[in-house]
Specification:
By secondary structure, the chain is mainly alpha-helical. The chain is built from 14 helices and no strands. The chain starts with a helix and ends with a helix.
């Protein structure tokens, strides 16, 4: 009887420990949501023209209740037409990049994997450069650059999946194929820019360093269903990713179709990154740093890691964009340069801290 009671007590202790650990993860995600909302409010109210939180609230309230007249035209234009679309685009881009980075690091079994390792961003840069410098594209009008960037991003993704599929979609083949395509499209971009005139090349280079300034409500309405649908699919498959953490052989023995799961998640991540890159240009380090920050706080449970990485990615991108708009106001720096500038020391700090913890 004493052995039986000891086993039961051990089960109770393990369950309590699990629930406590799970509660800490839920609390972390719960804190991230209001934190992100506060950051959005702070970002909307700060810029070359400072606007109070009250005016931000009244402008949003006025749009939902048109009969009210609670804010000035000046504040209405700045908030609703300039800052809010830019910031919402940043939130969606940060979620897509952060969540995709977390999934890719599991799928590719590489802690340095991020949404740009597989050549998706370099392919988008090549497509955008073709459109900006030579006017060559598969679309016309205002979506020429966006359409071209999206097409070549998907082309890169299809090449990776097609070539790596011949080796049963192994992580190593995906990474190597992606790196080869990254350098290939970078070379093509350099050749295209070499033959362009100075103004066009300048515009193409500016596109590649990331920019949220061209966001508007029409572009948000296009990107929103892609991002939300992709994120829901990634959350849906998070249990399989948890099992894959134990290794492919173990996952197969537990009934997980490892090859399908890897390909499925890579397709969703590729679509998310391609959609974001085509609208914002290259924004680096968000998809690399955000999952590491979350992993060091709440561990590797992908049911919480994937959504939390998306929220942290949004917070990092909104902070970087706020710095880009205010540090040299009225000059607005490219947000991709700011994320890289702050991402490098933050990533180095995380590596040092992790090494210190393991010792």
């Amino acid at each position: 009887m004493s052995n039986l009671s000891a086993i039961q007590q051990k089960r109770i202790d393990l369950r309590q420990s699990y629930l406590k650990h799970k509660g800490r993860k839920q609390l972390f995600v719960g804190i991230l949501i209001p934190t992100l909302l506060i950051l959005v409010g702070f970002a909307v109210s700060n810029g070359s023209a400072s606007i109070s939180f009250a005016d931000v609230f009244t402008v949003i309230l006025k749009k939902n209740l048109p009969g009210l007249n609670l804010a000035t035209v000046h504040a209405d234009v700045i908030i609703w037409q300039l800052r809010l679309p830019r910031i919402i685009m940043g939130v969606m881009a940060g979620m897509a990049l952060g969540s995709s980075g977390a999934v890719m690091q599991v799928v590719l079994k590489n802690p340095l994997a991020d949404p740009y390792m597989l050549g998706i961003a370099s392919a988008a840069s090549f497509g955008a450069s073709l459109a900006i410098i030579f006017g060559i594209g598969f679309w016309s009008g205002p979506y020429l650059v966006i359409g071209n960037a999206f097409f070549f991003s998907l082309l890169s993704s299809c090449l990776i999946l097609g070539l790596s599929g011949k080796k049963d979609a192994s992580p190593e083949s995906m990474v190597l194929t992606g790196l080869a395509l990254l350098f290939f499209f970078q070379a093509l971009t350099t050749i295209v820019q070499y033959f362009g005139d100075a103004d066009a090349v300048k515009a193409a280079v500016f596109w590649t360093v990331g920019n949220l300034g061209k966001a508007d409500w029409s572009k948000i309405s296009i990107l929103f269903p892609l991002v939300m649908g992709g994120l829901l699919l990634l959350f849906w498959r998070s249990n399989d990713l948890n099992i894959m953490n134990a290794g492919d052989a173990t996952a197969k023995s537990l009934g997980v179709n490892v090859g399908f799961t890897r390909i499925f998640n890579m397709i969703i991540c590729s679509l998310l990154v391609a959609g974001v890159v085509s609208f914002t240009g290259t924004i680096g380090f968000v998809g690399l740093v955000a999952p590491h920050v979350v992993r060091m706080i709440i561990g590797c449970d992908n049911k919480f890691l994937v959504p939390a990485s998306g929220l942290v990615g949004s917070a990092l991108l909104i902070l970087a964009d706020t710095v880009a708009r205010t540090v040299m106001s009225p000059i607005i720096l490219p947000v991709g340069a700011v994320t890289s500038f702050f991402g490098v020391p933050l990533f180095v700090y995380l590596i040092i801290k992790k090494n210190g913890t393991n010792q």
